[in-house]
Amino acid sequence: MKGRGCWESASVRSFCSSGCLNKFKKDDSGDEDDETASPADKSELHSTIKSLSLKLDDLSTCNDLIAKHGAALQRSLSELDSLKIPYESSEKLKVVNERATLFRITSNAMINACKDFLELAETHSRKWQRALQYEQEQRIHLEETIEQLAKQHNSLERAFRSAPGRATNPTKSFSEGSLLTPKGEDSEEDEDTEYFDAMEDSTSFITVITEAKEDRKAEGGTTGSVDWTSSDNVLDGASLVPKGPPKVKRRVRIPDKPNYSLNLWSIMKNCIGRELSKIPMPVNFNEPLSMLQRLTEDLEYHHLLDKAVHCTSSVEQMCLVAAFSVSSYSTTVHRIAKPFNPMLGETFELDRLDDMGLRSLCEQVSHHPPSAAHYVFSKHGWSLWQEITISSKFRGKYLSIMPLGAIHLEFQASGNHYVWRKSTSTVHNIIVGKLWIDQTGDIEIVNHKTKDRCQLKFLPYSYFSKEVARKVTGVVSDSQGKAHYVLSGSWDEQMECAKIVQSSPSSPGSDGKQKTVYQTLPAKLLWKKYPLPENAENMYYFSELALTLNEHEEGVAPTDSRLRPDQRLMEKGHWDEANTEKQRLEEKQRVSRRRRLEACSRGCGTEEEKEADVYVPLWFEKRLDPLTGETACMYKGGYWEAKERQDWHMCPNIF
């Protein structure tokens, strides 16, 4: 009996360790992980079942041979048993006969077990085939839909290019502007404009350039200054930046972006309608900068604010502030990659008093919802602070990114305090076509000391629009509502301002509405975008400042974004290692969050409220903003003193 048991165990082990069974188990365990199956997977499954069937046929053949030879063996044993042999030999023949019988029974049992196994495999095979067929049909339907969208896209593009009324003169962009896009054939879809906070009381306007020192008195018109005055001279050369030799040599390039292919739709299709900050994404969708560094990048054209310090006129100063607010979008035109979501407590400093004349500090003060606090001090006489919460939604064909929170800018000498909010960013062609980004909506900048206002309109791009792409228009008016300057340009190239010398209403249009006609002096250039560095297309389209933001620096806090390992690995081109490190950091943050929530003994409401109640930012504190009436995190001091002492004992271990 011992021999039979050994033979049976060995046979079962041999069969279970065969390549076919291992392959079968692999297909079974991997079915839940793969959301879609290719025809190759289906063919492989058929091949596996076929191999199992062949194995079963072999076993059946072996069973027949065993039965045949077993019967012959038993006949031989029976013949020996009928012979006159000693008693001891007769007992041995009986034992051999019993073992032969057990051997045949075991063989039959093994064949029956193999048949049951094959039947079970065939049953599951039919279920898998139905699932694979459904996935294949869904994929074919999606491919047909995408192909149809691509054809419609190309058809619309050809129709636009061949349209007879298409504008051909880009310089015409300054002659007519609008602070409110009229709803009609040329407007974006309602679905696209859902998030744009349009100002209902804004009026359309037309600008007419006139020569200086000309008699502009007209009936029913309002006459202003007849020429640029000496107080306007600060606007001359506002776009020019004195470039001296840098005191610290900064890097001018980073490793080229690796060419990794990734199916965007396979990941994004499960994100429709969800908050993207709560969806784990591989680094393939990122750029090697954190959101804190992207906020700091808004300071690239800080010289506009340095110029604004010397303005004696508040409306003139407003022009430079408006140009600064628009310039922060200039780097986004090619930057479709997502910055890293900062870890809770992560910081980023920019200590550039020597060359930029400013110090900047950002801290991630909340994780759900993601919120970052930012404070900037300039030695030229201004300071800027903000708390920005990023809200993003994926809507299938486009991605909307909505920064929430007010930006404050204060000039110490004059006491002028400006407040504005960012516009909506939209990433188009998520499903098909080349990704491109657009800035849309309205920005209202208010000087809370003088009550001056600037209303900026970011016009959404449309194939059928006669306007130039990425156009921005605006009007600067005083506390009495009188318009002083007209602003125009594009958020990715430049901004100009023209002084208004006369305004009058135009004749009613076909829709019965009147536009305000502004007669202006020739425009002056306020801001012009810096050219991108050489080879920028292979370096994530980083600007000159962006290339230096993740450069290693000594003496920074241990929570600084420059020390984040997954971001550093991605910058070096090690994306697989970066993904592994990113998962480790996210799991570490989840564990820390659970511990904080468990430590909260008070009966808070939601988990976000509990977390907000437990977590206290290190360098910022919540205060009531008297101008906006909102509670926001403001800098409480102590960071630069801690850096000078190199005392970082209070910093958490987040990396």
From TrEMBL:
Residues 168-178 have a biased composition (Polar residues). This is Oxysterol-binding protein. One of its GO terms (cellular component) is perinuclear endoplasmic reticulum. Belongs to the OSBP family. Residues 23-42, 161-191 are annotated as: Disordered. SUPFAM superfamilies: Oxysterol-binding protein-like. Keywords: Coiled coil, Lipid transport, Lipid-binding, Membrane, Phosphoprotein, Transport. It is found in: Membrane. The keyword Transport applies. It holds the Pfam family Oxysterol_BP. The keyword Membrane applies. The lineage of its organism: Eukaryota, Metazoa, Chordata, Craniata, Vertebrata. PROSITE patterns: OSBP. GO terms for biological process: lipid transport. Its main location: membrane. One of its GO terms (molecular function) is cholesterol binding. The gene is OSBP2. It is a peripheral membrane protein. Residues 132-159 form a coiled coil.
